[in-house]
Amino acid sequence: MLASALAGDMDTFPKLLLRNAERLGDRPAMRHKDLGIWQSWTWRQQLDEVRKLALGLQALGLGSGDRIAVIGANRPRLYWTFAAAQSLGAVPVPVYADAVADEMAYVLDHAGVRFAVVQDQEQVDKIRSCAAKIPGLTDVIYDEPRGLALYPPAGLHAFSDIQRSGAERLAADPALGRAWEEAIRTAGGEDISVILYTSGTTGRSKGVMLKAGSAVRAASDTVAFDRLTDRDSVLAYLPLAWVGDHYLNYAQGYVAGLCMNCPESADTVAQDLREIGPTFYFAPPRILESLLTRVTIRMEDAGWVKRKLFRYFIGVARRHGEAILEGRPAPLSGRIAYALGEVLIYGPLKNVLGFSNIRVAYTAGEAIGQDLFSFFRSLGINLKQLYGQTEAFLYVTCQKDGAVRADTVGPAAPNVDIRISGDGEVLFRSPGMFSGYFKQDETTAEAMTDDGYVKTGDAGFFEPDGQLRIIDRARDVGRLKGGALFAPKYIENTLKFFPEIKEAVAFGDGRDFATAFLNIDLQAVGNWAERNNIPYASYQELAGHGEVAKILAAHVDATNLRLSREPVMAGAQIGRFLVLHKELDADDGELTRTLKVRRAFVAERYAPLVEALYDGSAEKYVETEMTFEDGRKGSVRATVRIHDARTHAAPTAELEAAA
Amino acid sequence: MKMRAASARGVPALGIAADDGIAPGELLMDVRNVSLSFGGVRAVTDVSFDVRKGEIRAIIGPNGAGKTSMLNVINGFYTPQKGTIVFRGHERRSMKPHHAVRQGIARTFQNVALFKGMSTLDNIMAGRSVLMNRSLFWQMLWHGPALTEEIAHREKVEEIIDFLEIEHIRRTPVGKLPYGLQKRVELGRALAMEPSLLLLDEPMAGMNLEEKEDMSRFIVDVNRQRGTTIALIEHDMGVVMDLSDRVVVLDYGKKIADGTPDAVKSDTRVISAYLGVPH
């Protein structure tokens, strides 16, 4: 209510901050676990922190139009930097904290940042190592002083010092604070609020510029859609530079006045989630998958009674859980068994996962397996799908409570207009849509249609019930030599639904048949190996094991069977596959920073293996360079075996044969 | 190397360091002509060296050179037949390990010696027991002054947990942890005593490259941020040369070299002790 009633004149985030401090003054705005204890800030305190920081940054020279990079993990101080910069008319540019120095330098230089607020020594070191490439950068502000004491002080400031200088300025001249608030009130929503760099799935990252007014409008729509209020809370654990984090936590947080919780460290997220018990939750399928794998493994190690109970009640949930969640009819016996299951299994399980209080949960980013999706929904978690991208400031489509499917992403989000182009590409117009790529007018023009729609680059179509279904990147959809449609991502996703397969890369455009590289999931396969007394010393050794290949062959076969049932996809079944000797890694450029496969790059890097898939050879020796975390290079050598897979006839053909 | 040189010059320590009234760079411990034998086996023969406040001092040598014996002598676990040790100005010939702890000497072990069934937090808390003042009675009652004291200690322990980046295993039983993390917890327990001298017995033994790099960084940080003086035994020459300010080399229980890493590295006796002598 708060949001929609005021969205009109509330067109920047600093304005929302002032409003929240006034109306929700003593409600928690931010929590952070430090030294083992959750510290919290109310909206009023958060305003004080932001004010001190803004006045400190102002003294340092930050002003209207300047760009300021924000690099690090999810921490209150970095989120405050967003609001502080915006309050001065400066534009925050969050950057992926795990980017290697070169990638980071490119973004910082392209964005023309003058200032950078970073988490710790690691980020300071990265910036210093390529300072020559970022001539515009004058000052770096760090949150954690550890290890930085002996660094030359020129251009290096402690976050606490900046805030102290802000507080001193304010104490000396209280009028400064009033002028600061006045400047916020007079600022307009037409200014750029943030520049979010895309993860670079397709080449160099692009800086997506988002206007304050449209960002707030988009967030207001979805806050109303999911009825988020100041009673809600979220755990901010996804990369700061990703549109999802900026939208779901920062933008929705300021609009709804909800409480954002920052984990103690990246390794403690699971425990922190349990302690916080958020009401709104987002996780990409990858994380849900690893949660399910963890639960499954723990249950396999549990005692006999627990295992039986778990299997039985998960069965009950699978049969009736989703119907009960959506308020559809379910038999009384099913309801009674489900209620018992809630006490014995689902409740405790949700508690362990930190899902007890979830009211709305979303997943997005890639396709999610039906089994995985249903598992969480059947436990009574309102998990839904959305489809979005940075250019839309996240939401393009999202599913309504009660109208949820695993293979679609829902109808258009509130006030979003979607159109499918002649060649199957999804186009949209939305309240939150971007105002252009920073310093790339030509690219911006290419991404738009003449009548102002944004091209998503994804191929998709509407199902009869009005839900959008995405099949692949539009430019990746190809054809086999025989003319059959080849949608690599569709094949890869079907393969990845098996817990043993962590990553898959499919090839086939312009070839005789489809083929695939597979990456095993070390956790799942490692656990299996342990239970079957199969010793292994490394990822490479386990990946090359004959028994592992047999398991994967069965999965490829099941995938082919599934493909054969889809009329459009049946032609592109997997003819041959191999288990890759090395895990695909973002540091080697094989995945993007958001962990999506860069197919063309992988094909080029492993060209001999791709050839071996098609020339009929049974094995191939390869040597691959790899990069360690600290940037040094090494190489892995392996002889990779190639396996043939069985293909299946389409069901109609089978029927004919039977007749 | 650049960083090490800085601390050797006696840059003031940051953070907390046990206040023993000794200025950085001055003599903290002096080992004088120590000899130790077990029956007919001479483990250490007439070894002398000193440790200065604020430095990282390494004791290296091939297998069986007497490194751990030397550490056990410093620690009070063995009493040498000959020689004396002057620590913080006090001379002593024989002492028990718990006296060493009271004097401000903490150590870690070559083979991890933690309480396997206890959590990381409890293991590190155990390290504070020597600093707890309340009587057993109050501690058992866990009320009033004992509780206030426990909270103060817990805060210190949380600082160590934060320092060593082991928040995620705070509540995990130590026995379930991988070896590299156990070593880190053990370092945490030793740090909890706020020692003026920290003895590390092969802190990197059995670790992979990444774990070694992590541990090296923590050792440097302990020394620089907390100002703790460290004497370490290590097998891995590369690590030692990068970490330490000064190195003592033992071979067959005798000191064969003593000096900066560079000086030691080019010493012919050291080279032959490590690589063997042509016969």
Short structural summary:
Chain A is α/β, with parallel strands linked by helices.
Write up what this structure looks like.
The complex is a heterodimer of chains A (659) and B (279). Chain A is of the alpha/beta class and 659 residues long. Chain A has two domains: 281 residues, 3-Layer(aba) Sandwich (Rossmann fold), CATH 3.40.50; 181 residues, GMP Synthetase, Chain A, domain 3, CATH 3.30.300. Helices cover 41% and strands 22% of the residues of chain A. In chain A, the strands form seven sheets. Chain A has a five-stranded parallel β-sheet, with helices on both faces. A five-stranded mixed β-sheet of chain A has the order 23-24-25-27-26, sandwiched between helices. In chain A, helix 4 links the parallel strand 3 and strand 4. In chain A, helix 3 crosses helix 4 and helix 13 crosses helix 14. In chain A, 49% of the residues are buried. The N terminus and C terminus of chain A are likely disordered. Chain B is α/β, with parallel strands linked by helices and 279 residues long. Chain B has a domain of 119 residues: Rossmann fold (3-Layer(aba) Sandwich), CATH 3.40.50. In chain B, 39% of the residues lie in helices and 23% in strands. Chain B has eleven helices and ten strands. In chain B, the strands form two sheets. Chain B has a six-stranded mixed β-sheet, sandwiched between helices. In chain B, strands 2-1-4-5 form a four-stranded antiparallel β-sheet, covered by helices on one side. In chain B, a hairpin with a 2-residue loop joins strand 4 and strand 5. In chain B, helix 4 crosses helix 6 and helix 4 packs parallel to helix 7. At the A-B interface, loops of A face helix 6 and helix 8 of B.
Based on the model shown, name its key terms.
heterodimer, A: 659 residues, alpha/beta, Rossmann fold, GMP Synthetase, Chain A, domain 3, 2 domains, five-stranded parallel sheet, five-stranded mixed sheet, 23 helices, globular, disordered N terminus, disordered C terminus, B: 279 residues, six-stranded mixed sheet, four-stranded antiparallel sheet, 11 helices, 10 strands, 23% strand
